[in-house]
Design brief:
The complex is a heterodimer. By secondary structure, chain A is an alpha/beta fold. Helix content of chain A is 47%, strand content 15%. Chain A has 2 domains: 162 residues, P-loop containing nucleotide triphosphate hydrolases (Rossmann fold, 3-Layer(aba) Sandwich), CATH 3.40.50.300; 84 residues, Magnesium chelatase subunit I, C-Terminal domain (Helicase, Ruva Protein, domain 3, Orthogonal Bundle), CATH 1.10.8.80. Chain B is α/β, with parallel strands linked by helices. Chain B is 44% helix and 17% strand. Chain B has 24 helices and 18 strands. In chain B, strands 15-14-13-16-17-18 form a 6-stranded mixed beta sheet, sandwiched between helices. In chain B, a hairpin with a 2-residue loop joins strand 14 and strand 15. In chain B, helix 19 crosses helix 24 and helix 22 runs parallel beside helix 23. Chain B is flat. The chains are: A alpha/beta, B alpha/beta. At the A-B interface, helix 4, helix 5 and helix 9 of A face helix 5, helix 8, strand 6, strand 7 and helix 11 of B. Chain B: It comes from Thiorhodococcus mannitoliphagus. Chain B: Belongs to the Mg-chelatase subunits D/I family. Chain B: One of its GO terms (biological process) is photosynthesis.
Chain lengths: 342, 605
């Protein structure tokens, strides 16, 4: 596998980096959608993040279940072992970051009969797919707007339920599949279906930096990396480690972060002002603000947190208003200004 | 546009840059140089977009490029409608069945590792295929999740995209174009100019070994970034490519450090073809003071005395780059920009849509042949084949012996089709007193002609009229020509011009059509003189403002639109309105019913 470009060496793009870190701290946020210009380091950031995530404790089973999880959130094997009073062995593994490449077939995504065993031994066995591999980790879809419709449908279903149900070739398998969906794409190449867009917790727009010093820095670092990837990664190891500790600390703090009523109220007001559909927007906004507070090491969610994260949490949930020519980003910003003044 | 365009005099005036001929290199020489540099650093430069029609010049370039490749370099050609199995790889069915275990087949992208991929008819490549290529580009590996196989194979290759597009609208997808360092245009090169190449394979191999040690200075990177910015190149990849190309050229010329000449080559070959604006003629002195140094680790000491030099260098390279921008390109760009970003992105009117049973075949899908979907027999049998042994054994266990091929429900494959989505033409007719009384009958005639045309093309039509205080839908989207004709004939005239209300209604309808997967086309017939505001009150100023805002919203939705100015003497306000809408403008006095019809056809084609 090629060496990924270090996450901490990515210049600018603060919103994207922040959103990915929040998703790493609180996977229940529901994934990150990164949309924007070509050549802005979308894929680079996600591959870089994968390389620095802290390891996790996983059970010794096909689905690397969480040993701490309740009986309903583990696979059949683990459940069976637990029922008989046995202790499931566990060990540290790296957090899976699974690529869902374009052109993937449904059987590989969802899981199907194991071809090898069927052919060589004449046995019927289930071979887990990408969704199983991504359990407790990240599922990354580059060019998510170009993904085949039928794949998107099965993905949505699993992402919503946290469980993958396979019924084919006379097999009936049910296994946990909780993952952070990370999608990236370029809006110029086709729009994303609104249903899928809504499923992502945070949505980030990336733009090419316009100022000379930033651009120079990008080119210089990239050039240095291309020439000697190994040396470059070693050089940035310490900074990557810092980011990792930030994530670890954020996860520790997260359960203690409290949301005061005042913040809840402001979040509600903001959503009403923007007319977002359903409660998903409000929930995500609060969750994201909590994740941000944890990332910054704070134990209380303030209005400042809310203001920082509101654009990422809400911009993809606005109803399209044909009478408003401005983009959804500026609509959220306008609402923020109206509500909080400046 | 105000930069008065690059004149040939500027091209000759690029004195400081040493060129053998003195008059700037010929386009052919640059094209060949691009082939050489691409071969020196295939992974760094990505490749070439070769814009030319098939012919001896293109053949000559391709044969030079092929001859430059060291022995054993894989060359693969990807056809336009390549299947995923062939492109990415998959299950080799024949080998799998004979071996009795899964055997993977390598895809073209993997086979081309370390070599060159030629993309045939690249201007028509589907976004999906392009995305598979760019994914392999970005990650340096081909990731396969197909047919029960998982493979991750490193593969680095260069792409030569053969772009046979004609005109501004046709061309390589931006996503792919952005990832190729060189954009060559061979159309203007004559056959006798296309001479052989001075470099050979040995030069390439030698340059490749030197490439790793070539260094590029901080100030030089700054120069390249600054020029990219001045030329209005948004993508950062351009600057990265420019640095790569400068290093490759230095390696080719046996230098260990990038020199001015290498920088000029990078500017000319990489940055110039991407320019979207001319740099300011006299660079204002207060423009590029880099707010340096932030936290530079190792180059602090020579920062101060270099401050002066890059500025000069900047100008030289900028001149050389500017000289390479073909005259007239910028005017073209300015005009073509809006259209290009729209049409290349979302497709033309009648964008492609998935459909169960009509249109062109577009891949197969697991599923049952229901609801009129067609089963793909070959693919179904392919899907069933690997499981035959297992199934027979299963049968044998329950005592049934059979030699027949066993196809089960899970094997069923259906063919998916794509067809052009339905176009709905929405006529918005201004039936107010000011415009209608003298011109309404003419407008009606034109609409009737258009209706006939829409009928022939099986388009739907809708009719919205606005007059007095409000706009109303006379006819919701329909295919019935008779109904359309009847409601048009019964259209009364007179009253004020509530233009904003008319536009709003048309836009709402267009938006709902878009949401249902159709393609709306707006045709607005008015004199552009709004005098009734949205709330029904009179007043030219406010009504005009509202109409402009509504027109901008139409543009934001990117709806194909046409505005027909029905006033007896077309005025500026009609033209302005069309521009705000992003619509094609057509004044009626120049348009009898027939030419009107042609204009609409051209817009909606």
């Amino acid at each position: 596998m090629p060496i990924p470009f270090p996450f901490s060496a990515i210049v600018a793009q603060e919103e994207m980096k922040r959103s990915l870190l929040i998703a790493a701290i609180d996977p229940s946020i529901g994934g990150v959608l990164v949309f924007g210009d070509r050549g802005t380091g979308k894929s680079t950031a996600i591959r870089g993040l994968a390389a620095l995530l802290p390891k996790m404790q996983a059970a010794d089973c096909t689905y690397h279940c969480d040993p701490e999880a309740g009986d309903d959130a583990v696979c059949a094997d683990c459940r069976e072992t637990r029922k008989h009073g046995g202790k499931v062995k566990s060990y540290k593994v790296t957090v899976p970051v699974v690529d869902l490449p374009l052109g993937a077939t449904e059987d590989r995504v969802i899981g199907a009969l194991d071809l090898e065993r069927a052919l060589t031994k004449g046995e019927k066995a289930f071979e887990p797919g990408l969704l199983a591999r991504a359990h407790r980790g990240f599922l990354y879809i580059d060019e998510v707007n170009l993904l085949e419709d039928h794949l998107v449908d099965s993905l949505l279903d699993v992402a919503a339920s946290g469980e993958n149900l396979v019924e084919r070739e006379g097999l009936s398998v049910r296994h946990p599949a909780r993952f952070v969906l990370v999608g990236s794409g370029n809006p110029e190449e086709g729009e994303l279906r609104p249903q899928l867009q809504d499923r992502f917790g945070l949505s980030v727009e990336v733009k090419t930096p316009g100022d000379l010093p930033t651009r120079m820095k990008v080119v210089r670092l990239r050039d240095e990396f291309e020439r000697d990837p190994n040396a470059f990664v070693t050089k940035w190891k310490r900074k990557d480690g810092k980011v990792r500790r930030l994530i670890e600390k954020g996860r520790e703090v997260l359960p203690e972060v409290v949301v005061p009523d005042k913040t809840l109220e402001e979040a509600g007001k903001l959503c009403i002002r923007l007319g977002t559909d359903g409660l998903r927007g409000e929930l995500t906004l609060i969750r994201a603000a909590r994740g941000l507070a944890a990332l910054q090491g704070d134990t209380e969610v303030t209005v400042e947190h809310l203001k920082t994260i509101a654009t990422s949490a809400l911009r993809h949930r606005l109803r399209r208003d044909p009478l408003d020519e401005s983009g959804s980003t500026s609509r959220v910003e306008r609402a923020l200004q109206e509500q909080f003044g400046e | 546009m105000s930069g008065s365009g690059p004149t040939p005099a500027v091209a000759d005036g690029s004195g400081p840059v040493q060129q053998p001929t003195g008059a700037g290199p010929a386009p052919w020489d640059d094209a060949v140089l691009a082939a050489v540099l691409m071969t020196v650093d295939p992974a760094g430069t990505g490749g070439v977009c070769l814009r030319a029609l098939p012919g001896p010049v293109r053949d000559q370039w391709l044969s030079i490029m092929r001859d430059l490749q060291p022995e054993g370099t894989p060359m693969r050609r990807v056809p336009l409608h390549v299947s995923d199995g062939r492109l990415l790889g998959g299950l080799d069915l024949a080998a799998t069945l004979s071996a009795g275990r899964p055997v993977a087949e390598r895809g073209l992208l993997v086979e081309a590792d370390g070599g060159v991929i030629e993309l045939a008819m690249a201007e028509r490549i589907a976004p999906g295929t392009a995305a598979r290529l760019t994914m392999a580009f970005d990650s340096g590996e081909v990731l396969l999740e197909r047919d029960g196989l998982t493979m991750r194979t490193p593969s680095k290759f260069a792409v030569v995209a053969l772009d046979e597009g004609v005109g501004e609208d046709e061309g390589l997808l931006n996503a792919l174009l952005d990832r190729l360092a060189f954009h060559l245009e061979l159309s203007d090169i004559r056959v006798h100019e296309a001479i052989a190449c001075d470099y050979d394979v040995d030069d390439i191999i030698a340059a490749r070994t030197r490439l790793r040690d070539v260094t590029i200075e901080e100030a030089q990177i700054e120069t390249l970034c600054g020029i990219a910015l001045a030329l209005g190149i948004p993508s950062l990849r351009a600057s990265i490519f420019a640095a790569c190309v400068a290093r490759a050229h230095a390696a080719l010329e046996e230098r260990a450090e990038v020199a001015d000449e290498d920088m000029a080559v990078a500017g000319r070959l990489v940055l110039a073809p991407r320019a979207t604006q001319l740099p300011p003629m006299e660079p204002p002195p207060d423009e590029p003071p880099p707010p340096e140094p932030e936290q530079e680790q190792d180059q602090d000491q020579n920062q101060s005395n270099e401050q002066q030099e890059p500025q000069e260098l900047d100008d030289q390279i900028l001149e050389a780059t500017k000289a390479a921008i073909p005259a007239g390109l910028l005017a073209q760009l300015q005009m073509g920009k809006l259209r290009r970003s729209r049409s290349r992105a979302t497709g033309k009117a009648g964008a492609m849509q998935n459909a169960p049973s009509r249109g062109r075949p577009a891949g197969v899908l697991r599923g049952e042949p229901r609801h009129g979907q067609r089963m793909n027999v070959v693919e179904t049998l392919r899907a069933a084949a690997p499981w035959q042994r297992l199934r027979r054994e299963e049968r044998a266990r329950v005592g049934q012996h059979s030699t027949r091929i066993e196809v089960r429900q899970d094997d069923f494959r259906i063919t998916r089709f794509k067809h052009k989505s339905e176009t709905t033409t929405i006529f918005m007719v201004d039936a107010s007193g000011s415009s209608a009384l003298h011109r309404l009958s003419e407008a009606k005639g034109a609409v009737e002609l258009l209706l006939a045309d829409c009928y022939v093309r099986r388009d739907k039509v809708a009719l919205i009229a606005f007059r007095g205080k409000d706009a109303e839908i006379l006819l919701p989207p329909t295919r019935s020509l008779v109904r359309a004709k009847r409601s048009l004939a019964g259209l009364p005239g007179g009253g004020g011009t509530p233009l904003a209300a008319g536009l709003d209604l048309g836009m709402l309808m267009a938006d709902s059509i878009q949401r249902r997967g159709g393609t709306p086309v707006l045709i607005l017939m008015t004199d552009g003189r709004a005098n009734v505001a949205r709330d029904g009150t009179g007043g030219r100023a406010r009504a005009g403002e509202e109409a402009t805002a509504a027109a901008r919203a139409v543009r934001a939705l990117e709806i194909t639109s046409l505005m027909i100015d029905t006033s007896p003497r077309p005025r500026q306000e009609g033209r302005d309105l069309a521009q705000e809408m992003g619509a094609v403008y057509l004044p009626l006095p120049h348009a009898d019913a027939t030419s009107l019809n042609q204009a609409v056809r051209a817009t909606t084609r």
